[in-house]
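Quick illustration, no need to memorize.
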Amino acid sequence: MKTRTFTISLFSLFLLLSLNVKGQKLVIEDNADILSDAVDSLLVEKFKNNGVEYTLIVDFKKKCDYLFANLYLEEGQIKASLHDCKNQILGRKNLGNSLRVASKEDQATLIYYALLDMIKNPQTTVSQNEESSTNKQLSSDDPEKGSIEFDPNVSEHDSRYFFAPTARPLKKSELYYNTVYFLLHDAQFGITDRLSFGMGTTIIGFPFYFTTKFSIPAGEKSYFAIGDLLILGTYGSDFNGNLLFANYTYGSSKSNFTIGGGLLTSNTDDLFGGRPSFVANVSGIKSIGKYFYLITENYINPFRKTEQRSRDFFNPDGSYAYTQFYEANYQKVLWFGITGLRLVTKKNALNSFQIGLTHVLDYEYETSNNNTSSSSMNFTAVPTISFTKKFKLQE
């Protein structure tokens, strides 16, 4: 019994010394939405004085040079946990529910002392129940390969559905890449913890688009966002279109829904009649397991279009009589959506595949100045597959 106690003590001392060596790096995953640029700056200085480098990004090729802290909400309380690169929980603390209204200095001080205590006094054993209750674990078959799985209750892909954005933000220095059929390529980058910017195009480079989104937290499960999508023609084309939008997301990182709307404009009559039109968006995602999600996004766009048409008239004997030219007015409703599954890869939660059906319903009602009318409806569905990958960029 004494030998076992002595062995554990030696192991604890070795672990303690190894964690306090100069050059230890610390990363904080802020799932409680507490950190700001001001708090980050204060934490950098505080940890630096104790030989710990607090950084916002991870070099996953050297993942085991880092400790991973997590700030998260649980039953209305802000909690913190600390892990190493091999999934070992080194500590956890309850920071209370008043941290959010504290000053920036007080926030930084409380977080600093809580994490520093866990760094200097790591737990060497944690029960299975304690480990699961933190819900903030890292996993990797090979830590040098950069596989990562943060909190089982937090998705690394919660800023987008198939293509449509949620109101939840990318974090600062995160890069999110999405490709559909490897024909359309899209990348979004977190400039701050609230603001992201992106761009995309097809493999032939036409068209080209830019996106931006600013997220506003409104509670533990609520986010608002405003943004813009600008589409430009290339290869000498003067085509352009723009969608100014706002949306609201409610729910957890893994199961949520989004409603939104925007004003769509273009410089051509061939697209949506050349008039400004309203676009509504309803999207959602539901976790159905550790790696699987049901996912859908839907756009509804009613618009009017005017077109010059002609109609030929014939005599009773079948001979041509005359041609009538008239102005046809269309009231169209376009429903475009994608519905399917998201699969997060088991070895690396930063990667996911989406498979589903792209469905388009086009309803058209025509009226003309000669009191004639007609309607038509067309429905099309095609299989769709996409791949996404998140990068947590290094300096």
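The chain has two domains: 2-145, 174-392.
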